[in-house]
TrEMBL record:
Any Pfam family matching the protein: AAA_31
Domain of life, source organism: Bacteria
Sequence ranges assigned to domain AAA in this UniProt record: 69-238
InterPro entries xrefs: AAA_dom, DNA_Partitioning_ATPase, P-loop_NTPase
Keyword field: Plasmid
Organism of origin: Deinococcus aquaticus
PANTHER family hit by this protein: P-LOOP CONTAINING NUCLEOSIDE TRIPHOSPHATE HYDROLASE, PARA FAMILY PROTEIN CT_582
Membrane spanning stretches: none
UniProt name for this protein: ParA family protein
Length: 331
């Protein structure tokens, strides 16, 4: 949308109406004595500028190979989609080039970014999903991702339900997603720094293929239930390593935690004393219904729509700990 010139006197007279128009996407160039002095831009533009500036600085620095992170838990309700979304956008705020794959037919991640709000959105089509790579023995190329506020997204919809049927008949195609992602990254002039994969909860062949497309597994845990099927997930990892030999359980992510609640106190103690030998435990992400509710309403990640919220600070801290861990340190 074109910038619209606006006198300072008009801004004072119609401030609330002007801000409402900015919220809808209008940009205003504020003039005083016929000279531009400031601008009003939508928050989406602001975050794009912030990411662009951080990316320009990041591109001057030595870079790691693309880090492929899968967020998985064989138990449902542990916040996988939220963790994937928030980590992706937090990384983008730090200037990294980031892509997200929604591999859950329920499409919670896709919906949370508003990609299903428009019935005509390509996100509703099978062709937009990664499911197409399982259609042949030799995987066809990944479709072009959608672009949402500085992050590339491969969306999901219920068409992904067909992938398990395909893999049940021919498990050899379980390597197709990894092979297709390899080819996509190799064809990029400047590959992503991070690719995050959000997964379905049930242990199926599609979950195995999803985990095998990554190199690092992050396990979000929001309660004891999130650890009940850890043995199931570890067995799945062993199968996935036949496709991705270097795949590792990289970290546990305590998510939606209330540290004053005995249940969560016990959970954190168990993670830190009993399970830290398996993988480091990242900083705690607190429970915050208000902030995450606002994210749902605005169809934006919490780190963008509520950057000053305490849980957004937790997410930023977790992101930085994760990057340090991948660079060879500890969480």
């Amino acid at each position: 949308m074109d910038d619209r010139p606006l006198k300072t006197s008009a801004l004072r007279a119609d401030l609330f109406e002007t801000l409402a128009q900015v919220e809808q996407g209008q940009r205003f160039l504020i003039e005083r004595y016929q000279h531009p002095t400031a601008a009003l831009i939508p928050m989406r533009d602001y975050w794009f500028l912030q990411m662009t500036r951080a990316r320009a600085q990041r591109d001057k620095e030595p870079r790691m190979p693309t880090q492929r992170l899968v967020i998985a838990n064989a138990s449902g309700g542990e916040g996988k989609s939220t963790v994937a979304r928030e980590l992706a956008y937090s990384l983008a705020l730090d200037g990294y080039r980031v892509a997200l794959m929604d591999l859950d037919p329920q499409a919670s991640l896709t919906k949370s970014l508003g990609l299903h709000d428009d019935p005509a959105s390509p996100a509703h089509t099978e062709a937009a999903t990664v499911g197409t790579v399982f259609s042949r023995d030799t995987p066809p190329p990944l479709p072009a991702p959608m672009h949402v506020e500085g992050v590339d997204i491969w969306p999901a919809n219920d068409a992904l339900n067909s992938v398990d049927s395909i893999l049940n008949n021919d498990f050899a195609r379980a390597a197709n997603l990894r092979d297709a992602l390899d080819a996509y990254l190799a064809g990029m002039e400047r590959p992503y720094d991070f690719v995050l994969l959000d997964t379905k909860p049930q242990r199926t062949n599609f979950l195995t293929a999803s985990v095998a497309a990554a190199d690092h597994l992050l396990v979000p845990v929001s309660g004891v239930k999130g650890l009940e099927n850890l043995d199931v997930l570890l067995k799945l990892v062993r199968v996935a390593r036949t496709i991705a030999p270097d795949l590792s359980l990289r970290a546990f992510v305590p998510n939606r935690i209330r540290e004053d609640v005995n249940h969560h106190k016990g959970l954190l103690e168990h993670l830190r004393t009993e399970l830290s030998a398996l993988a480091p435990v990242l900083p705690v992400i607190r429970d915050s219904l208000a902030t995450m509710g606002a994210a749902t309403e605005t169809r934006q990640p919490a780190v963008l729509c509520k950057p000053g919220a305490k849980v957004s600070g937790d997410l930023r801290q977790t992101t930085h700990a994760l990057v340090a861990l991948l660079q060879g340190g500890r969480a």
